[in-house]
């Protein structure tokens, strides 16, 4: 791992994790609202959305939130939660825009895959929106392929999955 980057589990309600969740949610919410309505998210609605997803599903024993730091500064997150004995779900993959392009996304994805394997997963799945092109590009680059929907909701538009190989075999 680059010496500038460090990645470690952190409570979802830590100051760093909370600030990164706010940045993530604001970015994806504003992107959706700008596309659909031509305006950013209403501040009250933004606060309700941030508060509504506590991240409790990323707490032990069946979840983990990984926080990436760049030069010690909180820079991004990736969450992993167990869905069943062999499948984990990837959540909250995010890097601050000013720190993108410095290798952090690959390191976060590697750490997330290790976390999924530690839960006993042989498969990692995720859902996302079609307009999150950068994220979708990252997932495909990392070996994820489109799969049938495994959940539903107002913002899930495309689903991806990846078989996890044993690290010792590649």
Automatic annotation (TrEMBL):
<protein>
    <submittedName>
        <fullName>Acetyltransferase (GNAT) family protein</fullName>
    </submittedName>
</protein>
<dbReference type="InterPro" id="IPR000182">
    <property type="entry name" value="GNAT_dom"/>
</dbReference>
<dbReference type="InterPro" id="IPR016181">
    <property type="entry name" value="Acyl_CoA_acyltransferase"/>
</dbReference>
<feature type="domain" description="N-acetyltransferase">
    <location>
        <begin position="19"/>
        <end position="165"/>
    </location>
</feature>
<keyword id="KW-0808">Transferase</keyword>
<dbReference type="Pfam" id="PF00583">
    <property type="entry name" value="Acetyltransf_1"/>
</dbReference>
<dbReference type="GO" id="GO:0016747">
    <property type="term" value="F:acyltransferase activity, transferring groups other than amino-acyl groups"/>
</dbReference>
<keyword id="KW-0012">Acyltransferase</keyword>
<dbReference type="InterPro" id="IPR050832">
    <property type="entry name" value="Bact_Acetyltransf"/>
</dbReference>
């Amino acid at each position: 791992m680059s010496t500038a980057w460090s990645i470690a589990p952190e409570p979802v309600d830590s100051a760093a994790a909370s600030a990164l969740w706010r940045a993530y949610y604001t970015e994806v919410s504003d992107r959706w609202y700008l596309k659909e309505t031509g305006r950013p998210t209403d501040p009250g609605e933004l606060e309700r959305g941030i508060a509504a997803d506590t991240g409790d599903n990323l707490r032990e024993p069946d979840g983990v939130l990984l926080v990436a730091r760049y030069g010690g500064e909180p820079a991004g997150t990736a969450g992993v939660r167990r869905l069943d004995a062999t499948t984990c779900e990837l959540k909250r993959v995010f890097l601050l825009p000013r720190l993108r392009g410095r290798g952090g996304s690959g390191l976060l994805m590697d750490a997330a895959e290790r976390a999924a394997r530690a839960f006993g997963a042989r498969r990692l799945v995720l859902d996302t929106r079609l307009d999150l092109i950068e994220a979708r590009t990252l997932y495909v680059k990392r070996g994820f392929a489109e799969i049938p929907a495994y959940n539903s909701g107002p913002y899930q538009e495309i689903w991806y999955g990846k078989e996890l190989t044993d690290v010792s075999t590649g």
